């Protein structure tokens, strides 16, 4: 059952206590430690959840224990925000186990991407909580994280003003328009394969009137074509007010079979839609990534060459 009202979390402040969870795959201990040290250096106090120290096959612990870790972090009044350790695989296994009412009544900043997409969708639609598609402790903070990524993250979760116009890192090419137009809608989306995987389930993403943000990594162009075609056949792309596609990391290198390039697939599958489509925007599996507040209003305008978050994502 989807909720119609949205709940904004309180913004993080310097010195905030951050709960670190591993709702998908386990992380490398040394890389995770480096990410925790960065958070401490930035003035935060990370508190590591039980799921970060467990392993069950390709999962970071049994399903019920990973779900319990999520519940504990939301329920604990001493935890100000929640960051995911990494993605990988496993969050879809938790969707039927989560207490969305508990999350709704204990709103907090929640950050992650990739496999965390399933949690963004379920939490957003079942509890109404605004969540943040952004960097993770091991995947990003445990490496040399660019200033662009840290600054985008901190602006999104520590500021009570709209993010305003977003742009690619200065060292990269600007995003390009596959289809022109102007649109306003609520930001939603995440990893393409996760969104496709939820189709036909109670947790499938409602794209109607949304600015649909899609990112992917290491998928050959024909696989991108297959997934985008499935979304087209399901009516998900046509229902969106506008679409933002990321700088697909390693996709053209994922298959040496001659054929379409990633850009050609995107042009054919997305470029013919009657809504604005922005491509090559950095918010996915690249070291430079913007943090996007899902559940918050934004605008696309090809004439003004702009992608703008127009609403505040947090409260004081």
Features:
about 325 residues, alpha/beta, Rossmann fold, Glucose Oxidase, domain 1, 2 domains, eight-stranded mixed β-sheet, six-stranded mixed β-sheet, 10 helices, 14 strands
- Count up the helices: 10
Say how many strands there are.
14
Q: What percent strand?
A: 15-25%
What would you call the shape? globular
State the end-to-end distance. 29 Å
Radius of gyration: 18 Å
Fourth-level CATH superfamily of the largest domain: LD-carboxypeptidase A C-terminal domain-like
- Per the CATH scheme, the topology name of the largest domain is Glucose Oxidase, domain 1
Helix/strand structural class: alpha/beta
Largest sheet: 8 strands, mixed
| Helical percentage | 25-40%
Give the H and E element order: EHEHEHEHEHHEEEHEHHEHEEEE
Looking at the overall shape, the CATH architecture of the largest domain is: 3-Layer(bba) Sandwich
**Total domain units:** 2
Mind telling me the CATH class of the largest domain? Alpha Beta
Q: Write down the overall mean pLDDT.
A: 96
Which segments are poorly predicted (pLDDT under 50) over 5 or more consecutive residues? none
Spatial strand order of the main sheet: 6-14-13-8-9-10-11-7
Question: Could you characterize the architecture of this molecule?
Answer:
It is a single chain. With 316 residues, this protein is of the alpha/beta class. The chain folds into 2 domains: 17-145, Rossmann fold (3-Layer(aba) Sandwich), CATH 3.40.50; 164-309, Glucose Oxidase, domain 1 (3-Layer(bba) Sandwich). The protein has 10 helices and 14 strands. The protein has helices spanning 29-41, 63-75, 100-105, 117-127, 137-141, 147-158, 192-197, 221-233, 236-239, 262-270, and strands spanning 17-21, 45-48, 81-84, 109-112, 131-133, 164-166, 176-179, 182-191, 210-215, 242-246, 277-281, 292-294, 297-301, 306-309. The chain has an 8-stranded mixed sheet. The protein is globular. The mean pLDDT is 96. Belongs to the peptidase S66 family. Keywords: Carboxypeptidase, Hydrolase, Protease, Serine protease. This is Muramoyltetrapeptide carboxypeptidase. One of its GO terms (biological process) is proteolysis.
